[in-house]
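Before a computer can learn anything about folding, someone has to put a protein's shape into writing. The outcome of that step, for a single protein, is printed below:
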Amino acid sequence: EKSKSEIDAKVEEAVKSANAESDKKLAELKEGLAKAQKQETIAKKQIFNVFNPTRLSIPQWISERDSTKKKIEDMEKKIEGMSSDNTSKAAQSSKVLEEEK
C-alpha cells in the first residue's frame, strides 16, 4: 500500500517535471519562431525595396520587366540598323567620290 502510493507520487512528480520541461522547450521554440518571422518580414521588405520598389504584384512586376527588356532589345536592333546603314552610306559616298576623280 505504501509502495503503491510512493510509486504514484513519483510518477506524478515525473509527469509534472516532464510537462514543465516540455512547456519550457515550447516557449523557447515560440520565441525562436517569433524572431524568425520578424527576420523574414525585414528580409522581404529589403528585397522589395531593391527589386520591386513600386510594390507591384509579382505577375505585374514580371510583365513590366519583360516589356522593358523587349524595348531595350528593340532599341539595340534599331541602333545596329542605323550603324549598318551609316556604314553602307559611307561606303557608297566614298565610291561616288572615287568615281568622280
Summary: The two ends are 131 Å apart (CA to CA).
